[in-house]
Amino acid sequence: MPLDLALPRRARLTEAIAPHWRRPLLHLALAWAFLLLMFAHVVADMARQFWDSSTYNHILFVPFIIGWLVHMRSPELVKVTPQAWWPGLIGVAGALFLWLLGDLTGLALATHLALVLALQASAITLLGVRVTAALLFPISYMLFLVPFGDELVPALQMITADLTIALVHFSGIPAVIDGVFIDTPIGLFEVAEACSGVKFLVAMVALGTLAAHVCFVSWWRRAGFMAAAVILPIIANGVRAWGTIYIAQSQGIEFAVGFDHIFYGWVFFALVMGLLLAMAWPFFDRPRDDRFIDGQAIADWPLLAPIERFRASGAVCLGVIAALFAGIAAWSISARTVEAEIPAQITLPAVPGWQQVQAAPGLWWEPRAGGADHRLLAFYQDSEGARVDVFYALYAAQDEGREAGSFGQGALMPDTDWRWHSPGPDFAMGLSDRLQAFSDTQRLALTLYRHRDLTTGSVARLKLSNIRDRLTFDPHPTITLILSAPEGGPVPAEEALRRFLAATGDADAGIGEWMDRVAQLP
């Protein structure tokens, strides 16, 4: 038997990879496998959102799109030699530190973004600057793996409501708008969270970014296309909401809602997407046979030479990535043991000019503060009949399942008759919202968070303040205070809240000092 027939042969996949690419790709595969395994809980959380939330269903296609983008460049990529580049480890360290911050504060967006950034940074580290230049768009497009957009829902609800009422009036239907509620002769319609159009917008931005890169060369045309990709779904969603109301006037609410569920959704999005591409088609300026990159030009590009000189061993970089993760993980475990000392029992004090009373009859309202160590709910009334409901929650620490301001927590009670109506008035501190139940029950809720010397209505500012506790191992309690007043009483809700705030203590110290006294803080 000839000797060469007896020798083992490489797998076909290995043979298809250029020799100078095999080891760097192996290092990258090992790094990504390690990161995905170590962040398995983050991966699972992201995958659950991709699959369960219609807002993020489109992300299921993003990995395949990235693979396709890389494949289109593969004939030119073989002309570039990968070389590990140690400054990329700074990006890996930064991504892991961002994960630490998100993990310690329970901010899912931060942990999701950190995982994607770690994958990107490890690719830059193990493949080097020239390969990064060749794969700049596919690597950047990985950011669309991060599920984001829910933060835009309130603003999009208001925009959709304004567009809808304008179209309703233009079509001759008499209607009155109150926040996100539109009252028509056939009934009351709500521009709910699901009607905000956020899933259309985030999916269209992802699609628009891809199409702008693949179909255009001119940056001016790309910018114009992206502007259309943002504006068109917002306008289309307003048309969608108007269409439901318009059909309901002649066919009834049940028929309109059924038609909305069948026709709208992704079918409607597909039509809008087709319209956008059809309008842009005459302006596509990228040649069909375009290579997207010039591998030889990138390999010879002299401007990258000064940067490329910071070379390193891929195996060493792999070891450093593992060591960085081990250090960050140990820090996270240690920081999670940090909890502030809080009293065994707390009570809401008397407020000058106000007295505690029984809950008023009517629809029950009680904010949610899951995982809080103490929760109090009391009802105050002054001599003129102004009523304020006071909800107070005290946390020894912020962890998964016990986070002030997290999704489903706060003034708006999920899975109840209460709905978000509109932003409330400015109280200089805190965040106010108008809530509505049915067609005639409204209340104004003011949410405040307290940590150290910070009093705010911003969840982001609260989490940044809490990060300090964990990183420095110096714990302080976190407080949530929600003041709410019903509309329709002898005193308007806004006036009742302002009176109560003024009665809690020194105007210079503000409500924050009152919140501290309830928690018995020095």
Automatic annotation (TrEMBL):
EC number: 3.4.22.-
Stretches assigned to the Methanolan biosynthesis EpsI domain: 320-504
Bilayer topology term: Multi-pass membrane protein
Keywords: Cell membrane, Hydrolase, Membrane, Protease, Transmembrane, Transmembrane helix
Location of the protein in the cell: Cell membrane
TM segment ranges: 25-44, 56-72, 113-146, 197-216, 223-243, 263-284, 312-333
Keyword NAD: no
Taxonomy, superkingdom: Bacteria
GO molecular function term, any single one: hydrolase activity
Any Pfam family hit: DUF3485
InterPro entries, per the entry: EpsH-like (IPR013426), Exo/Archaeosortase_dom (IPR026392), Exosortase (IPR019127), Exosortase-1 (IPR017540), Methanolan_biosynth_EpsI (IPR014263)
Protein name: Exosortase A
